[in-house]
Amino acid sequence: MDMDLSPLTALALVCTLNRSPAESSSQLLAEQVLNELRTQEVCTELVRVVDYDILPGVAVDMGEGDQWPQLRQKILDADILVLATPVWLGHPASVAQRVLERINADISATDEQGRPLLGGRAGIVAVVGNEDGAHKVVADVVQGLNDCGFSFAPQAATYWVGEAMSGTDYKDLENTPDNVASTTRALAVSTAHLARVLRERPYPAL
């Protein structure tokens, strides 16, 4: 078998509620994740989901006006998926939930060897908020993506949560906290490694 020598690719889906060009803390953290992935020779792309018309539903294509098929193809073309979301009322943002619901349309789809269609891809979760709840949001997103076939390296999540009931957002900070920066750097290294392993030694046929 010929080895695939093309660069690894990563897609970041930013699930902020704010359309472009509004500033976004979720996008800032996603950009920092992608910056670290680029140091691992990964080609990257970032999409702000609310800039697309993603119809509600759990089908691959919900028909006229639905732009999910465009994002779905980007996911299929990527080795790594980064899902970045704010915390709202202790949960992933509604945009992130919609992304998970649309990804769920492929939960039973398989490739020609019977493996999950979305298998062989690595996942990363990035969370921001000014209240507690980051661990719960990470758990929700990782569980949903893993159910659909994504694999996760150890500690494949990064987050920042500000003081409860404060008005400070991640994008308002003068500097990235050291713990966030080091966590983001570490997950990029481990996830790029996992993605290479998955490409070079795919899961066995089912």
TrEMBL record:
NADPH-dependent FMN reductase-like domain location: 17-154
Superkingdom of the source species: Bacteria
Record InterPro entries: Flavoprotein-like_sf, FMN_Rdtase-like_dom
Pfam family, one: FMN_red
Signal peptide (residue range): none
Coiled-coil region: none
Protein name as it appears in the record: NAD(P)H-dependent oxidoreductase
Species: Streptomyces hazeniae
